Amino acid sequence: MTKQLLSLNLIATLLLSLLNAPHAFGKDKAAEHTAKVKAAIAKLGVGEQARVSITRYDKTKLSGYIHEAGSDAVTIADLQSGAKRTIPYADIKAVKGKNLSTGAKIGIGVAIGIGVAAIGFYILLRALAD
User: Fold this and answer.
1) pLDDT averaged over consecutive 10-residue blocks of the chain (130 residues)?
2) Cα angle at 95 between 68 and 74, to 5 degrees?
3) 69 membership: H or E segment, kind and range
4) Could you name the CATH architecture of 2-99?
């Protein structure tokens, strides 16, 4: 009798744990998506140059620049009116933004400098050849 009760208890426990499994995986997936959104916003930076377009889960779209990026929410400022709106990372479905990283800015500056130096060197060689 006790073996039957233990067997039934074990079967019930296993079935209940299987029913709860999708919820556990869903929470990890949502947390992973929130971490990706947070990383994308951190990559764009903060300030008027950090232009962003955000799509929320309720299908509303916001665009502007990132005014402030906190630990659990981001504040978006509208470009025309300057109105600020705070949005939790968990409510954001997609992020699209435009901003050059510091490395890209340095690379562009170095390329311009090399181009100017090459043109100057060419002009100097032409002047000395005459």
Assistant:
1) 79 73 62 86 84 89 88 88 89 82 81 92 86
2) 20
3) strand 61-69
4) Roll (2.30)
